[in-house]
Structures are given as C-alpha cells and as structure tokens.
Specification:
Number of strands of chain B: 9
CATH superfamily of the domain at 100-222 in chain B: Protein of unknown function DUF881
Number of helices of chain A: 6
Shape of chain B: flat
Number of domains of chain A: 2
Shape of chain A: elongated
Helix content of chain A: 40-55%
Number of helices of chain B: 6
CATH class of the domain at 100-222 in chain B: Alpha Beta
CATH architecture of the domain at 100-222 in chain B: 2-Layer Sandwich
Oligomer: heterodimer
CATH topology of the largest domain in chain A: Alpha-Beta Plaits
Structural class of chain A: alpha+beta
Structural class of chain B: alpha+beta
Strand order of the largest sheet of chain A: 3-2-7-1-8
CATH topology of the domain at 100-222 in chain B: Alpha-Beta Plaits
Distance between the termini of chain B: 84 Å
Strand order of the largest sheet of chain B: 3-2-7-1-8
Radius of gyration of chain B: 31 Å
Strand content of chain B: 15-25%
CATH class of the largest domain in chain A: Alpha Beta
Amino acid sequence: MKKKGEVVALIFVSLILGLILSIQFKTVNLSVGEGVLPTQRAQQLANDLRKVQAEKEAQLRLIKELEDKIVVYEKGGVENDIYAENLYKDAMKYRMLAGYTDIKGPGIILEINDPPIDIQFGEGFSIVDELDLILQLISVLNAADAEAISINEQRYTAFTEIVRAGNHIEINGVSTNSPIVIKAIGNANTLESALSLKWGIVWQLRNYNYIVHLTQDQEVEIPRYRRVKDFVYASPLEETGN
Amino acid sequence: MKKWNPKLMILVSSAIIGLFIANGMRLNLDLITPVTVKSIISAKNELSAAKLEVEDLEELIEQKSSELKTLENIASGEENIIDIIESDLKLNKAKAGYTKLEGPGIEIIMFDNLLLDNNVISYNDDIIHDVDILNIINDLKVAGAEAISINEERLTSSSEIKCGGPIIRVNGRSLGAPFTIKAIGDPKVLMAAVNAPGTYGETLKTIYGIGLEPYIVDKLIIPSYKGIFAFNYAKPMEEGD
C-alpha cells in the first residue's frame, strides 16, 4: 500500500536523524573532553569577572583623580615658600626613587611569548613555570644600570614579589600571564647588550624555545607602584652622626 | 474530501521546526560553547584574584583620600604643608632604602656545602648561586619583608644580585660566602618562608646540602643604601599626559 510505504520512509528518516544527532554529541564529548557541564555556571563566573573588572577600572579612575588633586594641593601649598619648595623637590626625588612616580625615558622592551604547543606531546610549557628566569632577567637589567623596570605594567620596587598562583603569575598582588613584557629605562645599548650576550639570559630563553622580542625604544613609559605598603615592623633609626 | 494535503502539512511543519532550531542555535551560540570542569576552576581562580586586586585598590583609595583630607586641612590652618611633605619625604626615603631601619625579623646565614666526602655530580651543586639568593629574597618578599640586606648591602629596587666567579655582586660591591641575609618583618612568617617543607630554602638545604641557617632576631638593624643612584635617563611623566 502506498500509505504504509510513506510511514516507513518517515520512520527511516527519523532514525537516521536521531543517529546523526547522537553521533554529533559523542564527537563533541570526545573532542572537548569529559565533564562538559551546563554552561550556566561558567557564564555566571564570566559575568562576575566582568563586573569586578569594571569595578577595578572605576577605582583606578578614582585613584587617578585623587592623585591629581593631591598634586594640585601640594603644588599650591609650596608655591610661596622657598623652604617648602625645596623640600617638595626633595620629596619628589625620593618618591621617584621609591617608585611612586610614572616615568619615561629611553630603554628597552622585552617580550617573552610562550613556546608554541608541541602537537606531538600535547601541553606546552609556559614562562609561568620558570620564574627563576624572570628574577634573573631583572637582576641582569639592574646590573646593566637600569633605572626603572616594569613587568606587565607592574613597577618593580624593593617590595615587588613574583609568585606563581595556579597557572598565572602574581606581581605586586596583581595577576598576569604570558606574554610577559618587561620594560626597562636606562642606557638602551648597555641594556640590550647585557641581555643578548651569548649564553646570556635571552639566549637561554631562546634556547628553551621561548619566542623573545627585544627592542630598543626612545620613549619607554613605566607606571608607578600602586600598592599600599606601610612599615609595620620596621622603624627608621635616626642617624647618629658617624 | 481531504481539506489539507498531509504531505504539504509535513513539509510546512518540518520547515517551521527547522527554522525554530536554526533560530535557537543562532541565539544561544555562546550558551552551547562546551565548558569543562578545568575551565570553570580557572575562571574561579581568576575571579578571586581580581577580587583581591579590588580590595588592594580600595585600600589605596582610602589612603589617598585621607592624604587629600589632610591637605585640605591646610587652608583651615590645622595642618602645615611642611609637616606633610616632611613626613612624606621620610616615608619614601625609607621605602627607597635610604634610611637605616630597625625592627624584628630574621637573619639567615648561607654558606657553601663544605663536606668533602659526598658524591655530587657537579661542583656547581655545592656552591651558592645568584639564582639561589634571588629565590630566597623573592620568598622573603612574598612573606612581607619590609627591608632586606645581604652582607650589609641594602636591597633596593635597582639592586642586582649577580654571580661573578667566586663572588656575588650586589649593589656593585663584591660579596663572598658566607652570606648573611637580614630581613625585617613578621619573624614567624619570614621563618616559614625559608624553612617550611617545600620552600626553595628547604630544598637547598636538604637536597643540595647548602648551609642555610635562619635565626629569629628581635632587633635587627638594616643599613641604608650606600651607593649613589641618579636618574640619568628617566624623567617623570607630566601630569595629564
């Protein structure tokens, strides 16, 4: 009968459709890995993160505003007093030394990218695993008389720590990840040659397959240190004229 | 008589269903991106790190607003600009490392592995390298050290620690073993940073046999930076740049 033939054809088509759908699901599972979860949680996390980041940006703007106001007040306050003005200059000098001023000047920019992931062995490695190298790099830059250093826009000060936290790095309490961009102000030629010496640190990094770009720049901008650091344990010892 | 052609019905309804499915897929494109447990955990970590940063910034805002408030009090005569700048100068001088500091903390004495009868693979494993000291210093900073010195050389932001053959150069001066590292901070936390199992210091001591002896000291004196440092290349950025 003609009618029956149609029904059979419909059933057949539906079966094939069902099969295709299930195969599709299986492949997604295989290629992405087990444990595919409902995406709601992930979306919620992403939303929260976006919110926190917006908050952070608003705070940074507020800080900038406050800093600008403070500068205006300070400058206004010292205007008519030579002693105060000299004191202010001195204060600015130490503020700069302690890393509380945005500064710029000639220097170098070093960018370290993770090596490409080896297809044969799966997971690649990252600079996150080798913080020693970053510590050494900074030491080399300082040995080459760098005047200021920043790592991913975090000013390197006497209190700056570099810690691994999970699969990212925390510098000055701010989490960053590769690529690592290190900026240094100083004599650009000295800095560059100190880094790119044979068997030197950049050579070593390249030997480990990191993709390193080292460039000289006439206008390197290094941001100030933005973290509250109070002396709780240490107290200044008055110099007793020696 | 048939009013509707069943074949046509099926055709129309499947077309409508197809449209619905396609529409739904298009709308929820980001909803069907697959998510794994791993990516959720890393997103969570990122979120908590971001929250910590926000807390840090909040603290900074508080500090800046109080600074602003004291500055505003100048007009009313409650505060003196010279006092404010002087205290700012003193604090930054201490932070930059130009003031002698005193406080509780720890002292670490580090010396090379002096044993003769151990079967080491390389003599390099027996001696202290710049990397070892850099790692210990970094651990101390993580533990909140407020001031650090190596053999009476104050560490500043521009102090280098470099191997130079038999010596280590710090602040342009040559230091030889044994090294005395002093750090002011919470003594217990600092002690844990170099002594707890799994830390770099502990590994150095137990696996490589390098001498590393930390002591808690109630009253440490850390000298000021002795070198002369001047900015020859760097210029402060003008406000509003």
